[in-house]
DNA sequence: CGACTTTTTGAGTCTAGTCAAAACATGTGG
DNA sequence: CCACATGTTTTGACTAGACTCAAAAAGTCG
C-alpha cells in the first residue's frame, strides 16, 4: 500500500532528436540495417522522411492501404486491432529502432492493425516502393528483414500459446516480464515499466478486463512482486514472477 | 443425432506420389516458387530430398537444431508446441504445397515447435544452407518468402485476436471455418473436414478442453450447423457459423 | 478547488474447467 | 463372428476463475 511518488518522468521532444545524427543512429539500430557500413546507412537515411507525432495520434488505421514502412525514432508506438465487439487487442508496443507498417511488396494490401502514438515522438517513413529499391540495392538486407519477420512470428506464436494455456495471472505476469525486457528501465529497486501504460492497455494485451487486471496487480503488489501506480509498474521480484509464469498453478 | 456412416476415406500412399513429376507439381505450388519457370523449378527440385512419413511420426521436435526447410508433398503435418503443463497447443495444420521448418538463415537456431505427421504422407526436405543457395540464385524468391512469412504472421495475430476476445463457441466456429477454407473438401451436403482430426486437436487449436469442444459441437450439431463424428466434421450451414463468429454474442 | 480520468473494490452471475463415469467406435485375436 | 481391449466422445455434477455492472476512491490537470 506504500504508494511511492510517481516515478514518471516526461520525455520532452527535443527538436534536435530527428536531426541527421539522430536519424543515422536510429537507422543503425534497426535489425535489418545495422550490419551495413556507414555510407550505406547514409544512403538509406536519405530515402526516409521524418515526422513528429503526438500522444494518441494515429500513424495509420487498420484497413488503410499499406503504403509505407515506418521506423520508430523516439517515443512509443502501439499496434492495435479493433474488434467488432469494441474490445481492442494490443498486439505490440514498439520503441526506438523498431519497425512497423508495411514491408509488403505486394501491391494493394491494407494494414491489418492500427498504429497509435503512445507518447509524443518521432518516426521515420519510407514508401513501399522506395523500400523495395533499397532491398534491390542491398540484397542481404532482404535476408535480415526475413529474419526480423520470423522473429515477430515466433513472438506472436508464443502469445498464442500463453493465451491458450495460461491463467489470467500468468498472462499478466508474462506480459510484464516481456515489457520489462523490451522497454523496462533499470532502477534501484527493480525494473520500471513506464510507457506510460494503463490497466486498460495491459488488459488489451492479455485478453482480459481492466477490473481483473487491477485485482491481479493488487494481489501481486500485496505479495511484494511488483509496485504499481497510475500508468507505471515496477517489477521488484523478477524471479518470483518468472516462477509464477512457469508453474502450471499448484501442480 | 442422425449419425451418418463415417465419410472417412483412407488415402493410400502411392509409391509413385513422390515421383519426379509429383515433386515438380508440388514445388510449383509452393507460394515462393510457383512464379518460377519450369527450368528453375527443375533445378530447385534437384536440391530437395524426399522422405515418407507415417501417422504420428515426428519430423522434428521443438528445441532440435533448426537445420532444414520442409515442404509438404502429400498428407497433413501439424505444428505443435508442448507446454510445461502438459497442454499442447496446435499452431497450424499443413498440407500439400505448404512449407514448414526453418527458413532461418541465422545459424544456431532451434525449432520453436514440433512437427508431427497427422496422416501418412511424404515431405520434401532441404538443408538451410542449400536453401540459402537457392535464395542467392533466385533473388525474387526471397521476396516471396518474405511475403509468405508475413502472411503467417497475420494469421497468427488473427488467432491472438480471437483468443483474446471470442467465447469458446466463437473460437471453435472460427477454427472450423478456417480449416474448411484450407483443408475442406466440398461434398454434397457441405464441406467435409477430415484430416483426420479429433476433439483433442480442436481443443488444442482453440485453447480449451476436449469436453468443452464436445459439448459445443453437440450444440452446433443440434442446431443443424454441422454434422460430426469421430475424427471428422462437415460444415452444413456455413452462413450461420459465420454469423456466430461475427456476433459479439447478443450485443 | 472542481472536473475528469484512472484505478480499486464489491456483489452477483455465468462460462468454461475439473473430475468421474458411461457410451460409443475401432481394431484384435480367438 | 464374437468378445474384449483400447481409444475417443459424450454426459453429468460440481467448482472456480473471470466477467459484468455499479459505485467508491484516488490521482491528474487546468
Written overview of the protein:
Two copies of one chain form a homodimer. By secondary structure, the first copy, chain A, is of the alpha+beta class. Chain A is globular, with a radius of gyration of 19 Å. In chain A, β9 (185-187) and β10 (190-193) form a beta hairpin. Chain A contains eight helices and twelve strands. In chain A, the strands form three sheets. Chain A has a four-stranded antiparallel β-sheet with strand order 1-8-3-6. A four-stranded antiparallel β-sheet of chain A has the order 2-7-4-5. The A-B interface holds A 81, 83-87, 89, 91, 103-106, 112-113, 135, 139, 142-143, 145-147, 149-150, 152-154, 156-157, 159-161, 163-165, 204, 206-207, 246-249, 251 and B 81, 83-87, 89, 91, 103-106, 112-113, 135, 139, 142-143, 145-147, 149-150, 152-154, 156-157, 159-161, 163-165, 204, 206-207, 246, 248-249, 251. Chain A binds a DNA duplex (30 and 30 nucleotides) through α7.
Task: Chart the SSEs and their pairings.
Two copies of one chain form a homodimer.
Chain A lengths: L19 H8 L10 H9 L2 E5 L4 E3 L7 E7 L2 E6 L5 E7 L4 E3 L12 E4 L3 E7 H10 L1 H27 L2 H16 L1 E3 L2 E4 L5 H8 L3 H13 L3 E4 L2 E4 L2 H9 L5
Antiparallel strand pairs in A: 1-8, 2-7, 3-6, 3-8, 4-5, 4-7, 9-10, 10-12, 11-12
Helix pairs in contact in A: 1-2, 3-4, 5-6, 5-8, 6-7
Chain A binds a DNA duplex (30 and 30 nucleotides) through helix 7.
